[in-house]
Batch of 3 targets.
Target 1
Amino acid sequence: MVLKFYSGSFVGGGGVIVALTLAEMKIPFEHVFVDMEAKEHKTPEYLAMNPFGLVPVIDDDGFVVYESRAICRYLIEKYSNQGSNLLPKGLKERTLMEQAAAVEYATFHPALTPVLREGVFKPFRKLPVDQAVLDEALKEFSAKLDVYEVILGKHKFVAGDEFTFADLCHYAYAPLLTMGEINIMTSKGPNVTRWWNELMARPTWVKIKAEGYKKGLQ
Ligand SMILES: N[C@@H](CCC(=O)N[C@@H](CS)C(=O)NCC(=O)O)C(=O)O
């Protein structure tokens, strides 16, 4: 049975990194559209797959997994003999990848969330933006990017000179910044700008951004 990938149609959040992993690893799948407007993700059938009632979820021949990063890791390991090498095999390389992935989850993402909340989602919903809150959030996020500038001055990607799962995790929410006309990813410093432009030009991302989560084979 072909792998089922459950998500909404909006290209953003955990669904994006699962879609990117499917594309990078050249894994055939079926996209099952979850109608969030109709609260399909809160039905008993869906809650049986993810008790938190969130997307994305995968069903790999009866093996059901939620939490996007866990899904990606499962897929990368299962299909390690094909597609991109996203989880380095050497102990030291793997540990540096884990370090960078932990930084994304524990530092980058928590600093980015308040910026998105105030500077992207509020204007998107036509709610008033509190400029002081946004400025503070941008200051915090900017400080994290200053550290990224140093890290990315030492190597091409966040965990070394190869694109890895740690880089891939950054696609979940940071591309949404431009929806709020926040161009911080390409105005902080030359190294962050170079890295971000490279991520934004990656063919799998360009295709998903243009076409969404298409049903069928990649
Ligand atoms: N940590 C989870 C986050 C999942 C999540 O927050 N999903 C959002 C979409 S990006 C969702 O399902 N929202 C619907 C809701 O909150 O009702 C993951 O990475 O899979």
Note: Residues 13-14, 36, 41, 53-56, 67-68 surround glutathione (CB under 6 Å).
Target 2
Amino acid sequence: MTRHSVASKAVDLVVVGSGIIGLGAAYAGIRRGLSVIVVDRTDAPVGATIRNFGHLCIGAQAGPAREFADASRDIWLRLARDAGFWLRESGTLIAAGQADELAVLERAVLEQDSGSADTDIRMLDADELLSRAPLRRDAVLGGALITPDLQTNPREAAGAIVRHLVSLGVEFRFRTAVTAVAPGRVQTTRGVLDAGLVVVATGHDIDQLLPDLAERVGVVRCALDMMRVTAPLPRTLDAPLLTSWSLLRYGRFDTFAETTALRERMHAERPDLAALDLNQMYTQLPDGSLIMGDSHVKAIQPGPFQPEAAFDAFLDEASRLFEADRFRVLERWQGVYASGPSEFLIEEPEPGLHVLAATTGIGMTTGLGLAERTLHNAFDRASLPVQGGTP
Ligand SMILES: Cc1cc2nc3c(=O)[nH]c(=O)nc-3n(C[C@H](O)[C@H](O)[C@H](O)COP(=O)(O)OP(=O)(O)OC[C@H]3O[C@@H](n4cnc5c(N)ncnc54)[C@H](O)[C@@H]3O)c2cc1C
């Protein structure tokens, strides 16, 4: 990665953090012709943005999350084309193994048909689901397809976006920690930056830079166990695959009575998996390996130790679902994201100082749109010395 030595400098926009939300803010700025510097203490993006499933789960969101997700979708498609990284318009598959799981999906389809939104979810019978996913016939009754969703490879996308932003004129200062922020001023371990606007996009480490704000809002960390495996699968997995554990998590399904009943049944039947706060889901990377996960532990500072019980559960449940007789583990890792009482942290504690985070596990889906939408007004209000360019 490009590194820059010390320099005090004045620019239109300084972004703290090179995760997907910081990259989204930098992209929003450079497309408006602003001068932009992104500061990150690491040597490249290595936070939540590269540790996730790469699942851009647009159609499972509701409310503001859906608005940000829809806005992100256009930006992801444009960036993939212009920055040249792998992204597919895969949709999302949902596998249902029991009647009450199908009932949640049928309710979602019904709600959509009675609403004004475009149809973006449809039921799949077992044959169609099995043609798109290498699952055991006896493990599924049917399922659904959410159509607008996308999939990328999170290990490559952020790096490609950084290179693209550099080509557009964004300056990155890696291996440079930010120690204090104020309107118009960013103190770093390599000097001070003066800025028209400051965007703080440090993810879960917001409490290290702005502890009072983090405490007031109630943002903590959520630590997740993850795993990458290979398996002799008879067919490829056409799209990210969710299960009934996922239906319990996403805004679109959250308010249904059918989801409440499903949660009660699943928690009663599998308290071990409920205790892991499991979201049993899968994505297949272009090399054929499967990313699987995930478990959730929320705390101000979750411990670094990853209990083997979570990985055992991932492998057991995958063996029940997939048509494969063995899985070989390639990697295990812990990911951490910001967790708060609502889905987003959008604050302007002082004029010109913006703080942005996804405070649940949907930042890849929503982060680019969150940055674009939130900063749209800020850029207009700030009347910065715009050098040209088309938003
Ligand atoms: C295991 C896992 C699975 C997930 N799966 C999905 C998924 O499939 N779909 C989805 O939509 N979302 C998913 N998420 C959530 C998503 O990955 C996050 O919401 C998103 O990546 C957060 O982006 P960010 O830019 O806020 O944070 P990050 O990517 O964590 O970036 C923050 C950056 O700030 C830098 N930083 C922090 N403090 C400082 C400082 N003081 N000075 C300088 N730099 C600093 C860090 O070094 C880091 O690079 C998942 C998350 C995890 C952990």
Note: Residues 63-83 form the longest helix (21 residues).
Target 3
Amino acid sequence: MPFTRASLDRLRDAIDMVALVGERTELRRVGSRWMGLCPFHDERTPSFSVNAEEKLYYCFGCGASGDAIRFVEETEALDFVAAVEHLAARFGVELERERGTGASDRGERRRQRLFELLERAASYYQRALWESAEAERARRYLLRERRLDERVLREFRVGFAPDAWDRLVTAARGQGFSDDELTAAGLASQGKRGLYDRFRARVTFPICDRRGRVLGFGARTLDGADSAGTGAGSGDRAPQRAGEPAGPFASRSPAGPKYLNSPETELFRKRRALFGLDRARAAASRAGRVIVVEGYVDALALHQAGLPETLAAMGTALTGEQLAEIARLAPRAVLVFDPDPAGLAAMSRAGEIAGAASLELRIAVLPAGKDPADLVAEGATKVVQNAVASAKPLLEYQVSRLLADADAEDPDARDRAAEEALRLIASTDAGPHRTRRLVDELCDQLELPPAWVWARLRETHRALAGPRPTAAGGTSSGRVGRAARSAGAGVDRAGAGASTRGGAHLGPTPPAPDPHAAEREFLVAALAAGDSGRAALERASRDLFASPLWRRLFDLLRSGFDDPIAIAERDGAAIAKAMTEVVHAAQARGRSDEALLETQLLQLQLRAVERRLTAAPPRLAPEERAQLVRERQELLAALDRMLGSRTR
Ligand SMILES: [Zn+2]
């Protein structure tokens, strides 16, 4: 435990749990609890509850639970120490560390030294860009050719690595950093004649973690920057692989690839890195989406265009780690690039790895041959904004691309496109409306009869759902998940997977109506009606409820009308979940009128009498039966009056 118990206690006291969780999901007060949609699983009705006094959260759907530290660990992808530091900064508490010893302490000190060195390097490069004469060409490239604002360049700490072999190495040594630290931070390489700077005569882009600590750099040469002008954009993308620079002292010219990244280090992992993560984080959480572009300059341009939730992938093929990181920021990601087939396949694979949680992928398509930075530089900011606003879900994008690519003259190619599109649609739970629209598009584009397409879709569906129900995965639906999150998935998820993956909308059988819907409806109406609802519950009795579930909820509501969720929690997750659904339905309804409530009560009473009349007639004494029949007459008459008064 690196922090003293006393300072952890002070932190726990200072935390406002509702404010903390409220940044991730909208919460509404229900008695002593706050409820909202679960940030950890995909749901439409809330089953997530926060206990503000004890500062705990619990999801009745997926079982996620814990305290504030756990919440930050999970939602911000931080380890315990980082989560505690995050909370301390957020709620203004000063932490005290325990005196530590041993290897873990030394490891932590080394990490801190590397962070410090990288931080100084970023400042050094940044100062060089704005102050040194030799950075003139870099400034011209960024400000005039790419038309980036100084404000955005400074915000992202864009810099310039001078054209020299050991400028940074010398400066860092002068500040007491060792050669080992310089290599471990990825800032220098070992050559025959000693250590030399890794980045030379390049524009530098610091790549940070979500807390804004510099992990490494991306760096671009200025070769060709002059001649190509603003049109250089389409080729201006971070490469998939960073090459190595030519050996030291071989030549004064900064040879090597156009883009050079930091090597893999203790801190920098390219598979996880996202440029602009720290700058985009808060905006993404507010906007509910992350915009993902390919290049560093694209990211800067979109921030400049008023889309601060933008970050850059390190290349087109997003990795599972990157997608999981993005999923922690927002429920939706808009990819502003044309993924090639390899990129799409990688995305599907990443989705499979990440599991079946909640990142909705959309694709924004730009005019051919343009990247976002070109358009912003040309003043066509609106074009980019519109493309983002009208981004298509991944499935729709994939299908329309398949159809557009199918050679109109080649019947075989068109058949193949049809089969592939049907496979995509069948393996996705897109819902009836989207499915219909996709099928319409397919029929139109390939001139196929709808009846054949629907029949073929059902066949494809059965084939996919057959021996390996999840073989098709949910990936092309545009949903990918939070890594590892699905491991603890509860009943809810398993059930949803089994039933919706089967694509119920394609089959002819609608779900059976709930025979006890009236019982649930009465509880919802009572809760929505406030005091008169409480009175209606008092007049009702337990035997009106044939379903044990709703009878239990009725009991709970009678004893804890003002704090229904807190009281239901004691009965376990299933009861608590049902209660949150009732509460949610009541809130959605607003106040219901008393006449309706009265009618529902009469209907329940009528059903109860009818149940007794039809149940085991031999045991029913004639006078008892007569009594029940009389009761039924009275209830029917009362209902008639109620309904009459309502229609009048
Ligand atoms: Zn949940």
Note: Residues 517-647 form one domain.
